[in-house]
Design goal:
It contains 15 helices and 20 strands. The protein has 453 residues and is α/β, with parallel strands linked by helices. The protein folds into three domains: 91 residues, 3-Layer(aba) Sandwich (Rossmann fold); 204 residues, UDP-N-acetylmuramoyl-L-alanine:D-glutamate ligase; 136 residues, Alpha-Beta Complex (Protein-Tyrosine Phosphatase, Chain A), CATH 3.90.190. The longest helix has 18 residues.
Amino acid sequence: MKKIVKYKNKKVLVMGLAKSGKAAARLLRKLGAHVVINDRQPLPENSDAKEMVAEGFEVVVGGHPLELLDQNFDFIVKNPGIPYLKVPLLMEALKRQIPVLTEVQLAYDVSEAPFIGITATNGKTTTTTLIYEMLKEGQLNPLIAGNIGEVASLVAEGASQDQVLVTELSSFQLMGIDSFKPQISLLLNITEAHLDYHSDIEEYRQAKLNLIANQTSDQYCVYNADDEVIVKGITQTAATCVPFSLYREVEGAYLSNGSIYFKGEKIIDVDAILLKGEHNLQDVLGAVAVSKLYGCDTASIQRVLMRFSGVRHRLQYVATIAGVDYYNNSKATNVIATQTALNAFDDSIILLAGGLDRQHDLSGLIPYFPKIKMLISFGQTKERFKQLADEYSLPCVAVDTLEEAMDAAVKVAREKDHVLLSPACASWDQYPNFETRGDHFIDLVEKLKNKNL
């Protein structure tokens, strides 16, 4: 860990606990700061606050009182999830020009290792994981942190110069940086999102572009040349910009005649890549460009792409049983996410869909019905799916549970079919979260696999 004086003898308010807040407070204390912790949850039910009190921290709970600012803080380090525009204390702090940071900035300040920073509206978890796996395969000592894996500042504390932090970064985190600059940045895509947090779309876009704002000419910015917002945004960086494109040859990574290339070198045929879907090819292109720029050899990249089955619950390949492929896309909790999954296949889909009924419009699935061999609906929305399928003469079976849906799928599935769990609904009618639902599906597939051995 670097020995820095930025926070020494400074008064720092840490807003919000959980893992990142606790890590930030402890690190700031090591750096010589005078730390006050503030969390809105009252003490009786706040185990994190009790833990920090026991460690000797000053902790203020039960809200975010304005009078805290009377302590004349030099910095505020806030949990990324706390919105600026809904907390009067933060709004007043900004008026007083008190720097408001997130713990990602702390991680950068103390890290001896360089950073690779990845941001996007969609696909950043898959791409971050791909880059990490490629660099690991190439024996380049990566660590994974940020929005995925361990808290960034915890990882950074123990990182050495011969390692690299591969970090997934959200707009929430990137609004709270001042000097953070990754050795390689990756801008995958920027579309409309999180407008309940940001004041408008421009603020959201700029938060994403903060990733590249401090980079210098000896650093790289890998960017999506097919995204107009990003192409316009890269004018804000001094970094060496390297594009990738799904649709044309560029001086970076691109798709041509069914193969992935990087600067003219063929990397791999698309057919050899285990990940399905055009949206995942965008992730692959970004990951290939970053990995090659960091010095990863092509053979290592190829090996990862031929075995990487996707991030758990995100169009994750689970198994092939009797010639039938099983995919877990439990994270698809809305129609748009299921549309993306259906786009990944040409035909022969047995779709398992259903869950909590939030009265969402399901008609967005109709254009994809020609690809679907059978729809098997379950949960609260089972009858809504069945009614829609019947209207368009799509074979459909409505059952109560995912287990019954799996049984129904096995009965009709034949070689070269794809059984796809992509519910288009939240899980809360039967499961606490989409992860538990996806894990149940994986267990059911594993049981079927063992039965067929």
